Amino acid sequence: MPTEKEKMLAGALYDPAAPEIQAELEATHRWLARYNAALGMTAAERRGLLLERLAEVGEGAAIRPPFHCDYGFNIRLGAGAFLNFNCVILDVVEVSIGARAQIGPGVQILAADHPRDPEGRASGLEFGRPVRIGRNVWIGAGAIILPGVTIGDDALIGAGSVVTRDVPAGATAFGNPARLRG
After folding, report:
1. Cα separations (Å) of 149 from 59, 152, 164, 178?
2. Which single residue of 70, 96, 116, 170 could bond 76 by disulfide (Cβ 3.0 to 4.6 Å)?
3. What is the pLDDT of residues 82-138, one digit of tens each?
4. Helices 43-53 and 19-36 sit at what angle, rounded to 10 degrees?
5. What residues are labeled active site?
């Protein structure tokens, strides 16, 4: 029988109130308190903190505090990836951000999802769908990336956009919902 954490990591329905999940959240909260107090530290010191919790931190990758996430251990940052102030990543499953991706302030990357039917939601169970952001992507301030979305290499997402569907490599998308633009 899989544990609640194993179910979560597999993208299956899981119980977020399970003690093992709550323990992981508490550990992340303690780490986030340290990381978000690190704005005055050097880039190298902040990188050391990122390496403590994130799954992968490529050379030169950076996140400006404050930063918020669920777990951290499902986040992969490619070399030179940059997340500006106040980004949120709900990483119940893998969230990968490619090399040299530029993420504006206040961007939300949401891999956490919920059942659509009322009875399913009332159960309190959740699931996740991975989010993949390619290399050299630029996501403007305040954009929201929804669960299961893939943004291809070299794409551009306009500020304030809500990305509900995959965006192909090299495309520009903006609006709510985000639509491909010429």
Report:
1. 25, 10, 7, 12
2. 96
3. 999 999 999 999 999 999 999 999 999 999 999 999 999 999 999 999 999 999 999
4. 180
5. 114
